[in-house]
Amino acid sequence: MTAAPPVPVPAAESSRSEATARPGPLVSATVAILVAATCIPLGYVVWGTVSVGWTRAYELVVRPRVGELLINTVALVFITVPLCVLIGVGLAWLTERTDLPGRGFWRPLFVAPLAVPAFVNSYAWVGVVPSIHGLWAGVLITTLSYFPFMYLPVAATLRRLDPAVEESARALGSDSVGVFFRVVFPQLRLAILGGGLLVGLHLLSEFGAFAMIRFDTFTVAIFQQFQVTFDGAAGSMLAGVLVVLCLVLLTAEAAARGKIRFARIGSGAPRAATPNRLGYSTIPALIALTTLAALSLGVPIWTLLRWLLIGGAEVWDFAELGNSLAQTIGLAGVAAIVTVVLAFPVAWVAVRSSGLLARVVEGANYVTSSLPGIVTALALVTVAIHYARPLYQSVPLIVFAYVLLFMPRALVNVRAGLAQVPPSLEEASRSLGASPSATFFRVTLRLTAPAAAAGGSLVFVAVATELTATLLLAPTGTRTLSMMFWSWSSELDYAAAAPYAMVLVLLAIPVTVLLFRQSMKVAAL
Amino acid sequence: MTEAIVDVRGLAKSFNDHVVLDHIDLQMQPGTITAVVGASGCGKTTLLRLIAGFETPGDGTVTIDGTQVASAGRSVPPHKRSVGYVAQDGALFPHLTVGQNIAYGIRGEGRDKVRSRVAELLETVSLNPSFADRRPHQLSGGQQQRVALARALARQPVVMLLDEPFSALDTGLRASTRKVVAELLAQAGVTSLLVTHDQEEALSIADQVAVMRDGRFTQVGSPQSVYREPGDRFTAEFLGDSITMPCVVTSGFADCAIGRVSVRADDGPGTLLLRPEQLVAQVVTDSGELNGVGKVLAVEFLGHDVLLTIDPAGDLDPIIVRQNSLAPPPVDAKVRIEVVGNGVVFT
């Protein structure tokens, strides 16, 4: 799970209640099947717990090993998330609201770490400090990998805030520190909560980065259990605890968010904010930013280049690399297309019809895609083995897993695109003699295409850099880039793994640029 | 009278048990403009959307040019009806040029023919044919509305539906665009239905005005008749400022606080309704005659007009008189209020 879309896209609002329409049978059927499918992972956990019986379940959950995992996982979340808040908010303020030199250069630089998958980052740190391991190593690596999830939405929100509100606070007697804590920070709350949730969910689902530094979280333990016992009760009980942790995070975020919405009151375009003068703090600020850039980007780039240099020409097996790249592009491409196509009916329901169905669809999707990839993968493995044997380790099943995991990435974009197509355009088309399907292709699809393409590319990169579900579900003989990277680095042949990591990073760069652009555009609203 | 080209009978529609349209009847004669006017949320847009085919009626029928297109629970889809539709904001396709927008509904014709038809339509709506290559966002609001109209006219619809087409324009532009559109629709001879909340717009543009309240028509008729002879107090007050006072009618004259007013009503007590422009205040020098004389409480200068607040004798509310601003009576002057034309009496 890397490069999720962390930029809050304004929620769609149907322009008037009269414009809400009843979805047709095809749309309803697709949406209903998707909703049913999203219940599989949660259903698996519940069914697993029930089928082992309460006593056995209790024994499996209440044991020292689970306690150890719980402490590890909870400590990881409680240390890393606040660190990400600190770094993300600090960075956003420095790059958006001060006269720091080179702000145009720093902004994209701190989004760039999103192009480096966390497991590649972990590999890089192991290359620099071979003895690195345990909780603090996990905190260091994931903080450096995930702080952009906080930085992007907070910076976007900061850019959007009306400086007139801050000026009023000034006029009411607050100094710049007072303005920040009493006026700016409260308005950043939604962005911080959203970013924090994203970081937290990534921490719960990350496998590769922690396995590489021998730090055991629930996801790592479930994976190891799966390799030992395949479809065991112990594994599904651990998955149950992980799901509970995940739901706790979701609920906590929802509760903290409450029903508050901040909107700019008043009309007219906001003026650009007057930057705060850093003065003597400029030099320390620049040193801090340089250090962060060196740790988050310098280390992976340096390690990759070093291993490539050490490996020399030998590690570049172009036939193998080409095959792996082709497989990755094929799998990720198919998954991206299927996800975007399926996102259309869901987005249509969410945008155009208000009511229970829309809320159920969104809720189901939100929860399932928040579940760690390992849980979804385990659930699909179990269901396939018991009820659909031919599907086990088949391309359709793994594509289905990707759809469940990465639907929101496509959905957020397609939905925003669809929301920008006013129903009145479709009505105009209908009144000009175009049938509903002709209207869809000539007007709706045409106008949503850029958003759909953006969503598709996000899914593409997410699939290309996905490791956990891919390892569990990929058909025998599949060798994607991330699988090849994983297999070489597990054999401690770091030089041979380097070309695969390099190609993965290069694949992710265009999408990272896209994310950065989107966040700038949201600010222009 | 010729047969109505659009015939709406007993049309009803509810959304979630909320009655939006309550058995509406409306007939539109060929080549005329009908304006449906009412406050927002009164159901007028729903009526238009039912005729266009965007909604299905709960009850009643819609007949366009002799073909029944909608009845209870059954509806011919909009693309199979001969209707033109101009939305509030024009709803131009942002991904197409102006020319492509206008050509959207034109079918099965050669490229050159479409091109010349687009140029012709642009001229019809008083836009230069060079506009065809522009993008919608490069046009002003008024120009966008005219392109939307040209696009709807391209299919030569039997009936043109306009949903608050001028409300997104600023005041000056609204009046001029309104005039252009009214002339254009009259020239094209297309039967039109215009929905608006602006009574002045409805009265100025339409041949037939239907006043709507809570899903029903309170009155349908020519602009003059609905304004001069409103059927009830709501219609009267919705269509313009009005002055009401109690009166007693005897053989064609109403006696009230300001004197005798000619009316067409049966004998008996009632409420007299007058329009402010019917009243003229004259300063009285002879203070002997007290009947029908009031005192000026305030004079508000509005440039072209003055508004006089006059306290009539007795325990009545002050009366507002609007008259030209040349030599208005001063504050505290005693005035007699004279009435031009007939009044309307509600019993």
Please state roughly what percent of the residues of chain A sit in beta strands, choosing from under 5%, 5-15%, 15-25%, 25-35%, 35-45% or over 45%. Answer: under 5%
**How many alpha or pi helices of chain B?**
8
Give the CATH class of the largest domain in chain B.
Alpha Beta
What is the typical, i.e. mean, pLDDT of chain A?
84
CATH superfamily of the largest domain in chain B: P-loop containing nucleotide triphosphate hydrolases
User: What's the CATH first level of chain A?
Assistant: Mainly Alpha
**Order of strands across the biggest sheet of chain B?**
7-8-9-3-10-11
Helix content of chain A: over 70%
For this structure, the CATH topology of the largest domain in chain B is Rossmann fold
**Annotated CATH architecture of chain A:** Orthogonal Bundle
SSE pattern of chain B, N- to C-terminal: EEEHEEEEHHHEHEHEEHHEEEEEEEEEE
Tally of individual domains of chain A: 1
